[in-house]
Amino acid sequence: MPNSPSLELTLSALRNQMRQALNRSLGEQGIALSPPQTQLLQLVASHSGICAKALAERTGRDKATITRMLGPLLAEGHILRSADPADGRRQCLSLSASGQQLAEACIKARRQVHETVFSPLSEAEKVQVATLLEKCLNR
């Protein structure tokens, strides 16, 4: 199909558009975090006690990258680290009170960006897109 849009280019452009919109939204709120850091906050908020390895698996990033991204969040006290009671070698992550407030603001900003970007789609189409993307992730 010579006139069909390139999936690669379309996904790349959409990702860039979403990242720019999220950066703008975060900046307007005075939040100096990268979109991937907001994703980590969102995951820790919804999975208290999650470890860095699980964050890496859920985000598709390597553990070293996750560790680097967590550094400032830990240093600023937004994310707390504690030993896993089942395996003392592993660290469990949770949010502090300031981390919870920051996560709520980030989740709201992320949700608004997604709602805007996907507003042309019906609810059924959104489910279909999500299902197809999950299929690709779980290959």
Automatic annotation (TrEMBL):
<protein>
    <submittedName>
        <fullName>DNA-binding MarR family transcriptional regulator</fullName>
    </submittedName>
</protein>
<keyword id="KW-0805">Transcription regulation</keyword>
<keyword id="KW-0238">DNA-binding</keyword>
<dbReference type="Pfam" id="PF01047">
    <property type="entry name" value="MarR"/>
</dbReference>
<dbReference type="GO" id="GO:0003700">
    <property type="term" value="F:DNA-binding transcription factor activity"/>
</dbReference>
<dbReference type="InterPro" id="IPR036390">
    <property type="entry name" value="WH_DNA-bd_sf"/>
</dbReference>
<dbReference type="InterPro" id="IPR036388">
    <property type="entry name" value="WH-like_DNA-bd_sf"/>
</dbReference>
<dbReference type="GO" id="GO:0006950">
    <property type="term" value="P:response to stress"/>
</dbReference>
<dbReference type="GO" id="GO:0003677">
    <property type="term" value="F:DNA binding"/>
</dbReference>
<dbReference type="InterPro" id="IPR023187">
    <property type="entry name" value="Tscrpt_reg_MarR-type_CS"/>
</dbReference>
<feature type="domain" description="HTH marR-type">
    <location>
        <begin position="4"/>
        <end position="138"/>
    </location>
</feature>
<dbReference type="InterPro" id="IPR000835">
    <property type="entry name" value="HTH_MarR-typ"/>
</dbReference>
<dbReference type="InterPro" id="IPR039422">
    <property type="entry name" value="MarR/SlyA-like"/>
</dbReference>
<keyword id="KW-0804">Transcription</keyword>
